[in-house]
Amino acid sequence: MPRPLGELEDAVMTRVWKWNRPVTVREVLEDLQQDRSIAYTTVMTVLDNLHQKGWVRREAEGRAYRYEAVSTRAAYSAALMNDAWSQSDNPAAALVAFFGMMSPEQRQALSDAVRMVQGPQAQTLTTHEPEASEDSAGPEASGDSAGPEASEGPEGPQGPEGTEGPEEPDPDAGR
Q1: What is the pTM assigned to this prediction?
Q2: Distances (CA, A) of 89 to 84, 86, 120, 148
Q3: pLDDT class for 128, splitting at 50, 70, 90?
Q4: What is the pLDDT averaged over residues 16-33?
Q5: What is the CA radius of gyration of the chain?
Q6: pLDDT, tens digit, 9 for 90 and up, residues 135-168
Q7: Tens-digit pLDDT profile for residues 48-102
Q8: 3-state SS string over the chain?
């Protein structure tokens, strides 16, 4: 699980993510200096630390390096949310509290994201399908699931390559 970035690490990574291309220490330094007084060696050290931690990769260019993000800010944010959620002693209550803090725009973004993960046949979060078995796939298969496929992992109902189905047969399939 990722450790949250420090303030200066985040400021540097924000630029690397925003530019979405290999960057030099000098480029990051010049942009940072618009907001604060900072030394070249400080930025160089931060980028080296981020490289050591696996946040950026680097490629030599003459006597300097060009740094590039290993993953996106969205992936970083998702990992932090997942880490915080997994540390809860009551994950369902943590989600309810989190959803309660969301703005209407954030709830709409969540609904859109769930539809993307579930695929083209997905229904909204509030749809209840009585024929979905409560014990079919664990905690995700709750009363407001959009059907059995809502209980699959992030790859969707078909698995990562679109070829896998549920691992165990449905005991109610023949009824």
Answers
A1: 0.59
A2: 11, 8, 34, 26
A3: very low
A4: 97
A5: 22
A6: 444 334 344 433 333 333 333 333 333 444 334 4
A7: 999 999 999 999 999 999 999 999 999 999 989 888 888 999 999 998 999 899 9
A8: CCCCCCHHHHHHHHHHHHHCCCECHHHHHHHHCCCCCCCHHHHHHHHHHHHHCCCEEEEEECCEEEEEECCCHHHHHHHHHHHHHHCCCCHHHHHHHHHHHCCHHHHHHHHHHHHHHHCCCCCCCCCCCCCCCCCCCCCCCCCCCCCHHHHCCCCCCCCCCCCCCCCCCCCCCCC
Read off the amino acid at residue 108.
Q
Do 13 and 54 form a contact (C-beta atoms < 8 A)?
no
Q: 57 forms bridges with which residues in the sheet? A: 68
Q: What's the Cα-to-Cα distance from 39 to each of 18, 29, 57, 103, 113, rounded to whole Å?
A: 21, 8, 22, 39, 41
The token pair at 8 is 């200066």
